[in-house]
Amino acid sequence: MSHVLLVALGGGIGAAARHLAGLGALRLLGPAFPWGTLFVNIFGSLVMGLFIAWLVKRGGSNELRMFFATGILGGFTTFSAFSLDVANMVERGAMMPAFGYVAASVLISILALFIGLWFGRAFL
Questions:
Q1: What is the pLDDT of residue 113?
Q2: Are 50 and 68 in contact (CB under 8 A)?
Q3: 49 CB-near residues (< 8 Å, 6+ apart)
Q4: What are the Cα distances from residue 39, in Å, to 2, 27, 30, 86?
Q5: Residues 6 or more apart from 63 whose CB is under 8 A from it?
Q6: DSSP 3-state percent helix, strand, coil across the chain (nearest 5)
Q7: The dihedral of CA 70, 76, 80, 82: what is its sign?
């Protein structure tokens, strides 16, 4: 149960940071493009790579990984976890599954969002 609390605490921190980054980007760059989302996805992926490399090299604890990678970075952007999944597949040489995962994640997620919008507008 303590693992769930670590993830929840980190997730709250990450979600708050994502919200603040989005507000900052909106104020600085305006609403014409989702700069805040783009920033958190790229920055979160960069930090995930740095953190995992550090964790492997230094032998950090599972609790630290759950709090920071799953919690903070997962709350900041789930794209960082997606990026790590893809990197793991590529490093294992599983190029076709990695490509399929990227294509399915992006395309099917967008399709699912449109289905949800359609359903919600039609029936709710």
A1: 86
A2: no
A3: 83, 84, 87
A4: 31, 14, 14, 19
A5: 2, 3, 6
A6: 90, 0, 10
A7: positive
Rounded to an integer, what distance in angstroms lies between the CA atom of residue 25 and that of residue 37?
Answer: 9
Where do the domains of the chain lie? 2-77
Contacts of 15 (CB under 8 A, 6+ apart): 75, 76
Whole-angstrom distance, CA of residue 31 vs CA of residue 14:
22
End-to-end C-alpha distance for the chain, whole angstroms? 37
Whether the pTM exceeds 0.85: the reply is no
d(CA 70, CA 63): 10
Q: What is the pLDDT of residues 2-44, one digit of tens each?
A: 999 999 999 999 999 999 999 999 999 999 888 998 899 889 8
